[in-house]
């Protein structure tokens, strides 16, 4: 069975749209979680404090564990490391599973972005996976 270029292109566009929808859902959930936070929590003035909150409190609320690492270049870019991402624990470790990883990460990227939005920070969140079950989230705080 062969496919023409048009149908392959349609599959790629459909996959991107699906990931965009998942990210949008995650953003709304992140906003909703942020709106339910105590008012004193919403008073973060420093980016680093907000990211620490995400790594400890928000991550614990969502996944019953803390993020394993947080690094920054002190210029608005942060890397959050989870060595045993709960949504990947039950997945196998083969390369075929790496192709499915973005489906799980799109929602979580949106979640982080939405929570940061509620905390008063505009951000761009991307994720990467080198080996399951670990993943990294790169958060870039937008400066205006």
UniProtKB/TrEMBL annotation:
Primary location group: Golgi
The name this protein goes by in its record: Trafficking protein particle complex subunit 6A isoform X2
Location within or outside the cell: Golgi apparatus, cis-Golgi network
Top-level taxon in the UniProt lineage: Eukaryota
Family classification: Belongs to the TRAPP small subunits family. BET3 subfamily.
Stretches of the chain forming a coiled coil according to its record: none
Gene3D superfamilies on file: Trafficking protein particle complex subunit 3 (3.30.1380.20)
């Amino acid at each position: 069975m062969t496919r023409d270029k048009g149908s392959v292109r349609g599959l790629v566009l459909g996959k991107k749209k699906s990931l965009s929808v998942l990210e949008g859902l995650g953003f709304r959930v992140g906003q909703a979680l942020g709106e339910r936070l105590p008012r004193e929590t919403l008073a973060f003035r420093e980016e680093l404090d907000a990211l620490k909150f995400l790594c400890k409190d928000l991550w614990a609320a969502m996944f019953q564990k803390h993020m394993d690492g947080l690094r920054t270049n002190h210029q608005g870019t942060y890397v959050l490391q989870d060595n045993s991402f709960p949504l990947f624990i039950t997945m196998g470790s083969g390369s075929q599973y790496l192709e499915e990883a973005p489906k799980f990460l799109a929602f979580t990227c949106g979640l982080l972005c939405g929570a940061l939005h509620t905390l008063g920070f505009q951000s761009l969140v991307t994720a990467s996976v080198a080996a399951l079950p670990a993943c990294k989230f790169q958060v870039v705080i937008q400066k205006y």
